[in-house]
From TrEMBL:
PANTHER family linked to this entry: SD08549P, SOLUTE CARRIER FAMILY 25 MEMBER 53
Membrane in keyword set: yes
Membrane topology label: Multi-pass membrane protein
Keywords for the protein's UniProt record, in alphabetical order: Membrane, Mitochondrion, Mitochondrion inner membrane, Repeat, Transmembrane, Transmembrane helix, Transport
Gene Ontology cellular component annotations, sorted alphabetically: mitochondrial inner membrane; mitochondrion
Compartmental location: Mitochondrion inner membrane
InterPro entries named in the record: MCP_dom_sf, MCP_transmembrane, Mito_NAD+_Carrier
Family from the record: Belongs to the mitochondrial carrier (TC 2.A.29) family.
Name of protein: Solute carrier family 25 member 53
Length: 288
């Protein structure tokens, strides 16, 4: 039997776990203002993903629609940002703790954060796929007349089975989120340590590491985001599987990687702002 002095009290452990969820949510909440600021950029990217248009053409579409419609669909990402940070950071920390206790002699310690991030990303996909589905429908101008309000979108999705309604494109979202979270938690620590060695203060090191890590992930997984946007933007029609949708997208992009990555440069700017701030705020609170 272990001595009581060697066992961490359950209350303290639970409090530490809850604090991680709280810090993750707070970090993402503080990045909601940049989310509002860069939402027009996000919407521009979305239009490029859907219509394969140039930046000037996408901006022209949004300008023609007016300021009111510019922020149509902003509610889901605002809610997602706060809840996403709460779940992602908190659940990753919970998984990391469990993996460290059970598999510390089997799995290298350096790989544990990435493995825990992979699991957190899968849970994230289950929770947030419906949010992303609603957001993509609202952002598609082709749905404005048929589905003018949030309530009309929700009613339409409820009438369909989950695979075609709320959980359309669940598989590519799971792949994107699981891989992205795994890379983020696996790389941000080593990247922060490397940047700190260059003489930057801790807060700046965290910001730069979050920016560089999320930038690389966004670009690597961008084709999955394009696929998700195209699968989720439409409501109704002939149901197609992931493979069929990917073939149709690849043909629509003329089998050209450059066209597939149209809008990718703006992803860099969005990642620099949102995940740089989120990482810096999270690391700052954790170190207190």
């Amino acid at each position: 039997m272990e001595k009581s002095s060697d066992v961490k009290p359950g209350g303290e452990d639970s409090k530490a776990r809850f604090q991680t969820y709280l810090i993750g949510g707070t970090s993402s909440l503080l990045s909601t203002l940049p989310t509002i600021v860069v939402f027009p950029i996000y919407k521009t990217i979305f239009r490029q993903q859907i219509h394969n248009s140039l930046v000037q053409e996408a901006v022209g579409q949004l300008r023609k629609e007016g300021l009111v419609k510019l922020y149509r669909g902003v509610a889901p990402p605002l809610v997602m940002r706060t809840l996403n940070g709460t779940l992602l950071f908190g659940f990753q920390d919970t998984l990391l703790c469990q993996l460290s206790l059970r598999f510390q002699d089997v799995i290298p310690a350096a790989a544990l954060p990435a493995l825990a991030g992979f699991g957190a990303g899968m849970v994230e996909a289950v929770v947030f796929t419906p949010f992303e589905r609603v957001q993509n429908i609202l952002q598609n101008s082709l749905n404005d007349r048929q589905l003018p309000t949030l309530s009309s979108v929700l009613s339409q999705l409820r009438a369909q089975r989950p695979a075609l309604g709320y959980y359309r494109a669940f598989l590519p979202i799971t792949a994107r989120n699981a891989l992205g979270s795994s890379l983020y938690f696996g790389l941000k620590g080593p990247t922060r340590a490397f940047v700190a060695e260059q003489g930057l203060p801790p807060l700046a090191s965290s910001f730069v590491s979050g920016t560089l890590t999320s930038m690389a992930i966004s670009l690597a997984l961008y084709p999955l985001s394009v696929l998700v946007a195209n699968m989720q933007a439409q409501v109704g029609g002939e149901p197609k599987g992931v493979a069929a949708c990917w073939r149709a997208l690849w043909r629509a992009r003329q089998q050209n990687v450059a066209l597939l990555y149209r809008g990718g440069s703006l992803v860099i700017l969005r990642s620099c702002i949102t995940w740089g701030i989120t990482t810096a705020v999270y690391d700052l609170q954790v170190k207190k």
